[in-house]
Each structure stands twice: as C-alpha cells, then as structure tokens.
Amino acid sequence: MYSFHSEFILLLLLCNQYCAALKGRIVGGKVCTNEKHEFAVALADKTFIVKCGGSLLEARWVLTAAHCCNTMVHLRYAMAGISTNPVEEYISNSVTVTTIEACITHPDFQQDDLLNDIALIRLERPIKETATISYVQLPTTKLNDDIHKWCTQAIVMGWGWLDYHTRKRPSRLQCVTLDVVSSKDCLHYYHSRRNPDTVVCTSGDGKDACRGDSGGPMICNGIQYGVVSFGMKCATKYPGVYARVDNYLNFIDNTRADYRAGSMTIQTVSTIVVICVLTAAQCRKVDIVVAGISIQALDSLKNVHVRNINYTLSHPLYETDGMNYDIQLIRLDEPIPESDNVKYVQLPTERYEDINERCESQCVHPIKAKMKPAYQILAAL
C-alpha cells in the first residue's frame, strides 16, 4: 500500500508485501502539463492533507484503491480541479471540494495481501465538468491478453512524496511515464499466486509511484487501465503493481447501478456532524467557543452552548506580518444546534468584483440595526 504516515510502519504484524507497500513516492516524475490530468482527484483527511489519489468517473463517483478506505487513512474530502493548481490552493474558484459520503470496496478485497484492491467513492455533492475538471475514460470491455503486449508505456500521476528520505511533498500534481511489463513476470518478484489478469505492472529506471499515490490512475492511450496499489522499495528492481481496471468493470458498473436503484446497503465513511466557525486567522490561541451568548451579558451562561475546538484551519496564504488572507475556520468537537439564541450565519453564494458597491445600500451592522445577532459567538482563550 502506498500511503501515509511513517507511524504505520509499526504494523509489522502484516505480511512483508503489505508493509513494503507503505514505502514510496512519485519518483523521477515532473509536474503534469501536456498530459491530460483534469480527472485526477486528491483525497484528503480532515486537515486537507492528501492521503490518496483517485479519478473522477462521473459527478458523484471516484475510482480509487480499496486500501485507501482503511480506517487508518481517515479520508474526508475529495478535491477536483486541483490538478492544475498548487495543492495548497484548494480554496479557489477552479477547485471543487466535497465531502466523501461512502467508500465501497470490492467485495473480495483482502487487506493483508491487497487482492482486488479497488473501490468506488460516493461523493456527497456532485462535481460538474469544467475547464479544469473532467471525467476519466475507462475501458469498455475486458481485454483477453496481458496489457503490456499492446500498451508499452503508461502515465501515472499523484501527489505522493518526491523522496522517501526527505518526505518532501509536491506542490503540484506529478506525472511519470513508466514501462508496462508482463504481469506474470512481475508477480514472480512478490512470490504471489494471484491471478495475473487482475493486475497491471510497471517499471522504470529511477521512476516509480508509491507513498501517497495510492488510488491514482494509470493511463494508457488516454484510457485508465490501472489503479495504483502496491510496490516494494520504490524505483528499484521491484515493479509497481496496479489493480487492472478492465477486470473490474462489472464491479464498477453494478455498484453504481445498485446504488442508484437503492438496492445496496453500504457503510458510509465515518464522519462527525460538525459546526464550523468563521473567524480571523490571527485568532490563534483559542480553547473554547461559546454560542448563544450574543444577546446576554458575558457573565451569564444561561442557555448557551460551550464547545471545545477540534482544530483550526487558516487560509493557506495567510501572512502574520501584513494580515493578508486573515480568515480561518474553527472546527468544533460537537455540533451546536440552532435555537432561539443560536442561528447559522448566511454567506455569499458568489464572488463579487466590487463588494463596496454591492454592499453600500444593502449591508447593515446587526447591533446598530437592533437585529438579533444570534449567529455571533465568543471564542475564549
């Protein structure tokens, strides 16, 4: 498994192959430019750290590796349109971010040796095609031969580590061109008895795909034939192994059809119903949030809600010196329900070129207008 935190190396009780898959990164690649990559999706945790890759199949479906659905990974968000942006700039008009609703793994997926390492992610909100977002093209039928016989080279892409030792992460999506090799010969390296028709293998001189690239697409002639699965000692004699997409077309089609028909019972991704608080990025040392106190004295705590802060997320371009991009979100450990004393604030639904002109006659201060500012909260040190 190409993934995630060095702490997971502690899972040495699993087989050598599984542990070896913890090591890696995109090696010897470059920033994706000429290659078609607008279907690439970054799968991130609650702090927007990219954990896996994926490819956008349609508005609410992403194709990825089954091991990316492991509870250790804690996937929370899918970010599309970010393949043309630095990954830190996920707050952008060209980027669409949505919460992951469910991760549906292949019914015969085996975590210990990563058999049938393929999954579909269902998104909470649809992602439409734009100038920076497109849907990936999959094979239409299963091939009856080893892919390397007609596809000699393939492109693999991801946001994985650039170097295993420095653990440096790329700012932009990386692409690497690799040689496609015989699956039978490839599996001899791993002493694996798995069906060679279920995988695709690649190799390259000083090039490979590993840690953080799991679930990303392997593209040949504009079509996705592989999903990054596992490897060992990246960019060495060991080939990279990918779930072979054309072998899983029935799983992909049936899963989506069953979901639409309502005949599938799935376990949704573990999420916490949360409330986010909008504030300034300079408000750093905050411990608790008090809601429902905006219409009463500060020393009165009747009918108020007190919550601890789970974490804060400042704008990636925030500067303490000039206070540029002075905005952040605070995520609470428990939700705060609306009530007579607590309301959710309404935000703009679009960006205005001249907010002063827009706001001149319409904007009012809630206190001066004697409004009930029930959406205001107190962030206490």
From TrEMBL:
User: SUPFAM superfamilies from the entry?
Assistant: Trypsin-like serine proteases (SSF50494)
> Which GO biological-process labels does this protein carry?
proteolysis
**GO CC terms for this protein?**
extracellular space
Signal sequence interval, chain numbering: 1-21
Q: Which residues form the Peptidase S1 domain?
A: 26-257
Q: Which PROSITE patterns match?
A: TRYPSIN_DOM (PS50240), TRYPSIN_HIS (PS00134), TRYPSIN_SER (PS00135)
Tell me which PANTHER family the record gives: SRCR DOMAIN-CONTAINING PROTEIN, TRYPSIN-RELATED
Protein name as catalogued: Peptidase S1 domain-containing protein
Organism expressing this protein natively:
Acanthoscelides obtectus
Ranked from the top, the taxonomy reads: Eukaryota, Metazoa, Ecdysozoa, Arthropoda, Hexapoda
